[in-house]
Amino acid sequence: xxxxxxxxxxxxxxxxxxxxxxxxxxxxxxxxxxxxxxxxxxxxxxxxxxxxxxxxxxxxxxxxxxxxxxxxxxxxxxxxxxxxxxxxxxxxxxxxxxxxxxxxxxxxxxxxxxxxxxxxxxx
Length: 123
Hints:
The chain is α/β, with parallel strands linked by helices. The protein has helices spanning 12-22, 46-55, 68-80, 92-104, 109-116, and strands at residues 3-9, 31-35, 60-65, 84-88.
């Protein structure tokens, strides 16, 4: 089983910029992004999220998002994806960075989730 990351942001520049940071610690981890709406506006797109899932070469995906309203599109995309997707309500940058570095180090999903727990945002 291989693990990858999908990043969802309301702003395409954020979604496309964060992998530059993550690649510093996780050059071998498949990272895909979905930023902004289909017409380039601020927001999220279920179609872009589905493409990010499809284009990720990993068997299972750890998904991170920037704002709560992205969660709804992520959840809908997860229902339609053939891949197993794990959704995390963590601090966006810190959660993705932690997960990417641990995947790169070969840490198990259970242990990654233990490390993400302290970064979880309370609803």
